[in-house]
DNA sequence: CGATAACCGAGACGGTACGTCCCGTCTTCTC
DNA sequence: GAGAAGACGGGACGTACCGTCTCGGTTATCG
C-alpha cells in the first residue's frame, strides 16, 4: 500500500467531498514531481501520482490531457525553473558560463535524467511536446537569442549572424550528447563549442 | 487421417511445430519494421509484432531484450542503412551535402519520425540506448569524424580542431531541431550550420 | 452536455438559485419516470435523472433514500396507478378479468419490464422493497383479498379459505412467469389458474 | 489425473505464467460462491472475486460473460444442487414434502437470500436469466411436472390438468412471497397451497 | 529410418495501468 | 437560505499489454 505523508500534521481523515481546487492541484503536482525525480518517466504513472497525492485519478484526468503534461507540470513544481542569464559585456564569457551551468545541471542533478526522459516521452506525446516547447525550450531559446542579439548590437558579433542556428549549435550540441550519449557531456566540451564558433562569429 | 487440409487453400495456417530459426527471425523483423513505419513507437507492441509475424511472443522474448531493441532491428531490416559518405576534395561541399541529405531523410521520409521515437524510447530503455549507439549513431559519427580528419590532413582545416565537437555542432544541431521542434529543420538551416562553423575551422 | 427540455418555453439556461421545492420534485420525478421507461433499471442513474431534470444530485439525495425509491416514485408519476377492481356478482369472472388485465399490463406495455426490474432491484435494496410493498403490492393484495372476502360473504366461496394464499396462487403464479420466464405469460394461463383453483374453493 | 504434485510447502507463491485452466476455474468458482454467501449480490464484485481467488480479472472476463453468470456458477459450486424428488404413491404427501423442503431451504439457509438476489439480478442481466432458466429453474420445474404426470397416470389426479400451471401455483406462489415479502413464507403456507389446489385437481 | 528431443505456435496466466462511469459527499456561487 | 453546479475521494468497470509459463504438435537430428 502506498503510504505517503509528507506533512505529519495533516494525519488522516480528509473529507470525501470537494476540496479547494488549488490545494488539490498543488498536492497532485508535488506528488507528480517527487515521483518523477524518484523513478523517472518509466514508473511515472497516473495511478501512482493519484495514490501519493491522495487524490482520485478522475481529478487528474480532468486537468491534464496526458501523462506527459502532468509530468512536465510536476517537474516545474519541484525544480524551480531558473531562467536568469547573466549579461556582462563579454559575450564569450556569458555564453560559456551559461553553457557550463547547463552542463552541470543536466550532469550533476536529477534534472538531467528527467529532462531527457521528458523529451523522450514528447516524441510520442504531442501534447507534451507542445507544452515542453511553449514552457521550457521556447523561453530558454528566446533568452539565448536575446543575449546574442545584444552582443551583435554592441558590435561584439557580426551583424549578419543567424542567432537561432547558433543556439542550436551550442545548446543543441549539448542536448545531442545528453540524448545520444556516444560521448560524455563535459565542461570542456561546452567550452570547445564556444571556441569552435566564436572565431567565425566575430 | 480424419482431417486433411491441403496447403493451398489454407495459406494462412502454418504448421505449429518447429520452424527454422532464421526464417522466424526474418519474419519477425519484417513485421516489426513494417509495424514501426506504420504506427510509430506508440502502437508498436510486441503483441502486434508477434501477431503480424505469425510468431509467438515467447520467441520474441528469447531473442530481443526489450521492445526498443526489437524496434531498432526491425527498422534496420526495412530501412536499409546507407552509410555512404562522399569524400571529394571540398570539405565544405562534403559536409553540406551530407547534412542536407540527412535533413531530407528525416523530413521527407517516415524515417524521421521513427528515428526520433527510437531516440525517445532509448531515454528509458538502456538496452535500446546501447544498441542505438553501437549500431546507428556510433558508426555515423565515426564516418563524419573520419571525413573531418582527412580534411585536416589535407590542410583544409586547422589541425587542432576537436572533430567530435564539430560533429555535435552539425548533426547534433539538426537532431536538436528534430527532437525539440521549436524551429523547423530546413535545408537552409543545414547550410547555415556549416557556414557558421567553417570560418573558425579553417 | 445533457440537454433535456420537455417544455419548449424553458429552453436552456435556468437560474442557479433557489426554486420552489414542489416544482423541483415534480421535474425530478418526471425525469425519473421517463428515464425508467426509456432505459430500464440498468441505465437508470441518479446522475442521469439529475441531468435530465436540470437538478442537482444533492437535491435528490435529500429526498430519496436510494436509487430504487426514486425509481419507484418516478414510475408512479408517469404510469398512473389504476387500482380499480370491478366487483360484479360473479367471482370467477371478476378474478379472471382482473388477472387477464394484469397479464396484458405486464406483457403489452413497458410496465412489465419496469415492474420486474423494480422487484429485481428490491432484492438488494431494502428501502425500495419496503416502499414497494407499502405502496404497490400491499394495496393491490388488499384489494384482491377484499374481493375474495366479499365472495365468501356472498356464499360463492367456502368460508374457511385462506384468501391470502389464494392471491399468491393467482397473482404470484403470474409474477413467477414474469420474473422467471421459463414459460410465457399468456391470457390462457391466467384463465387456467382460476380454473385450477375454483373447483376446490367453491 | 496424471500428475499430482503435493507440494504443500509452497502454498503462497504461485507462478506468473499459465496454470491448469481447471484449477484456476475451480478457485475462481469457490471464491465466487463464498463471496456470494458472505456478502450477497450487492458487494459481489468481479474485482473481489479475482482478489480472493488470486486470479486476474482478465481470466474471469474470458470465461464468464457477466457478473451474474459468475455468481450463478459460484453458487452451484458452493451449494451442491440437490435435485432429488421423492416419489411415493401419495401425490399429496410428495408435493407437500417437496414444497416444505423448499420453504426451509430459502428460509433457514443463506440460499434463500442468494436465490432471490440472483433472480433479482437476472431482471437486468439477460445472460444470467438464460443461464438461470436453463440450469436451475428449468430442471426443477421439469422434475415437478414429471411427478405430477406420474400421478395423473396413476389416476390420482384428473388427466386434463395443465401440470405447468400447477407448478406455478405451488412453487411460484412461494417465490412470490420470497421476492415480494408482503407476507411471511411459512411451512403452513406451503401446506395450504397444496390444500387449496388438490380439491380441484382430483 | 524411425524414435526422440528441440523448439515453435498458441494462448492462458497473474499483473499493472489505463481511461470511464457512477457513487455519495462537500463547497461555492447564484438567485 | 435553498438549490444548481460541479469537483472531490473512492471503487469497480472492461481493455490492452506485459512478461511468464504450459501445452500440443512438428521437424530436424541422431541412434
Keywords:
homotetramer, about 200 residues, mainly alpha, Tetracycline Repressor, domain 2, 2 domains, 9 helices, elongated, disordered N terminus, DNA-binding
The gyration radius over C-alpha positions of chain A equals: 20 Å
Q: Give the termini distance of chain A in whole angstroms.
A: 61 Å
How many domains of chain A? 2
CATH evolutionary superfamily of the largest domain in chain A: Tetracycline Repressor, domain 2
Strands of chain A, count: 0
Mean pLDDT of chain A: 88
Name the assembly state. homotetramer
CATH class of the largest domain in chain A: Mainly Alpha
Give the largest interface pair and sizes. Answer: A-B, 47 and 47 residues
How much of the residues of chain A is beta strand, in percent? under 5%
Figure out the total of helices of chain A: 9
**Helix and strand run of chain A:** HHHHHHHHH
Helix content of chain A: 55-70%
Shape of chain A: elongated
CATH architecture of the largest domain in chain A: Orthogonal Bundle
CATH topology of the largest domain in chain A: Tetracycline Repressor, domain 2
Low-confidence stretches of chain A: 1-13
